[in-house]
Amino acid sequence: MDRLTYIGHATTLLRLDGVAILTDPMLRAGLGPLRRQGPAPDPGLPDAADLVLISHLHRDHLDVRSLRRIPATTPVVAPRGASRWVSKGGAEKIAEMGVGESILVEGVEITAVMAKHNGYRDAQRGPQIEPLGYLLRRDERTIYFAGDTDLFPEMSELGPVDVALLPVWGWGPSVGDGHLDPERAARALEMIRPRLAVPIHWGTFYPAGLRLLRPEPLREPPREFERLASLVAPDVEIRLVEPGDETSLDPE
Q1: Is the pTM of this model over 0.70?
Q2: What parts of the chain have a pLDDT lower than 50?
């Protein structure tokens, strides 16, 4: 049975017909001023992955210290030009991809698709690397991992998609350009029309101290997404998965 464990933020563990895929591994208790809310990742998680996906360079998605916990022989798929940072995490098998390219890794067909997002490592400094989303195909099931993105017209061309993992927030009290919020994520469902959607990129990290004053933004976005999705895409099943929990990818 295919399953998804939502580790938190953009980190998920997908189990597709016996292959375990770890997305954007952020496994630490904190990053700069951010502190993890909810359960810590299982200590055995790094060894469980057969394959790692990196969507873009931002430090909450490409975390070198988290990559160092993963065996060096685990294949890593990343945007073209990202090897410079991925290799610092010890990875020995790095496959770089660009939009529209497909490869087969560990029996999973991976197609890189566009993402509308900032491609810098830090703010607006340094080299820009094209961010990616991914379509994963295994045993006639297609999963869309969006990484971090805003709406883009080509979303309507991604299908057919069985399961969409869509970001619906971030780590602060607001989100800006280059991100999906609940309203834009619901509009994305109208375009993609997956069978099942799981909201991700919420409820995991919050600036130290601020979460005591405003805990609501990171708890409400997936529920607001669910509400709006029921209005604009009522045929799509929405599955809310708390950080640390798992779910089947089969229909309920």
Answers
A1: yes
A2: none
